[in-house]
Amino acid sequence: xxxxxxxxxxxxxxxxxxxxxxxxxxxxxxxxxxxxxxxxxxxxxxxxxxxxxxxxxxxxxxxxxxxxxxxxxxxxxxxxxxxxxxxxxxxxxxxxxxxxxxxxxxxxxxxxxxxxxxxxxxxxxxxxxxxxxxxxxxxxxxxxxxxxxxxxxxxxxxxxxxxxxxxxxxxxxxxxxxxxxxxxxxxxxxxxxxxxxxxxxxxxxxxxxxxxxxxxxxxxxxxxxxxxxxxxxxxxxxxxxxxxxxxxxxxxxxxxxxxxxxxxxxxxxxxxxxxxxxxxxxxxxxxxxxxxxxxxxxxxxxxxxxxxxxxxxxxxxxxxxxxxxxxxxxxxxxxxxxxxxxxxxxxxxxxxxxxxxxxxxxxxxxxxxxxxxxxxxxxxxxxxxxxxxxxxxxxxxxxxxxxxxxxxxxxxxxxxxxxxxxxxxxxxxxxxxxxxxxxxxxxxxxxxxxxxxxxxxxxxxxxxxxxxxxxxxxxxxxxxxxxxxxxxxxxxxxxxxxxxxxxxx
Length: 505
Hints:
Blueprint: H1 28-41, E1 45-53, E2 56-68, E3 73-78, E4 82-86, E5 92-94, E6 99-108, E7 111-121, E8 125-131, E9 134-141, E10 144-152, E11 158-166, E12 169-176, E13 180-189, E14 192-200, E15 204-212, E16 215-224, H2 234-238, E17 242-260, E18 263-282, E19 285-300, E20 309-322, E21 331-344, H3 346-352, E22 363-375, H4 382-389, E23 396-410, E24 413-424, E25 436-446, H5 448-458, H6 463-476, E26 478-479, E27 484-491, E28 497-499, E29 502-503
Antiparallel strand pairs: 1-2, 2-3, 2-4, 3-6, 4-5, 5-8, 6-7, 7-10, 8-9, 9-12, 10-11, 11-14, 12-13, 13-16, 14-15, 15-17, 16-17, 17-18, 18-19, 19-20, 20-21, 21-22, 22-23, 23-24, 24-25, 25-27, 26-27, 27-28, 28-29
């Protein structure tokens, strides 16, 4: 878990918090206690030595420690001294150095791991204001660099380097203390780059370069002040633990190179002009929504593929929601995916269609699945989850499922469909161990025979495969004219199955 504030490490190495300025008096001790309360809610311990001289307070020997789950060991993060100045207007200013070092060390199964990170900032400023139980933080910085100075791993013979630099950022947050500790934060991070490389004594090496445009994030995190058990977060979610995050990013690119004995074995490039991600997690479930525009991928593996695989997508959007807590009543779940303007590179087309007999039309897809299920296990109770899935009876029962507005447009042919089913989990004999379905589905395809002829002419499928596909269409589809077919499927309460009105079971 990352904390955006003076005592938490962010990817840029800076620390901060969010909200609107409240005009009231706070002290440096209030700020320190706010940090300690927050980390206690995450299961961590914050320690430090407090030195007070007039209106100046210094926290030295500051550290954050965690006990890792599964008896894996412990994690200790040591932080640079924090200097705070109590101002006459009731606010607190952070007197932050332009350069500081953060170290992290862990003992994982009695094997030591450590990292030392140097962070440099231009014009780093920070203030805190509000009341002891409602503190607002604002941190700003100009250009910054992050450098991994030293990394110690249990395995010998691995050299790893990491650097990052950016044009600046502004992060603000508001921390409310109570039975729930709630942090509302916003951040704006200017363009930045991240580079890493590694090499092993076995001849395996790699490198990555990534560039990121401006990004803006808003988030709300609510934690139970009494703390939570990392092995079982379910009680914390039932008591109000929740997280919501929205991130808007632009102009991201990356290039990853893998080598063996100095020979390139894989080279991958990706790019996206803009993207939006929304994530929420609470007692009602996990919800994820993502969309991106002008998404590009190029994969080159010369020892495996005769040419690079390139494709681009004008826009892609998708998401899912699923329950995370056990309940005796049905809970909703869903999945959706939309793709517009999928276009493959010329090398891939040439492999399958050198004579250009297939249309080079863009591919579009729209898929939406929704349903309900009874979830018999808390998905964040690690031990219960392990025991539940080791049993013969699956702990999740499907109750309903609907397919809404399926649409696929590919190679000049179109497939569309919809359907809705209820499932009788008390009857697992009628369909051989699967809960008995009751409902209807409909599928329609346009250009089916034309597509088979095109695939046959290019050699993608054989004559026998094309004949088998046409036979299946004749058995399970109705011709509606103009090379179009449709199929309807019906499952009845008494276990009958009909296709296009003909009972086949």
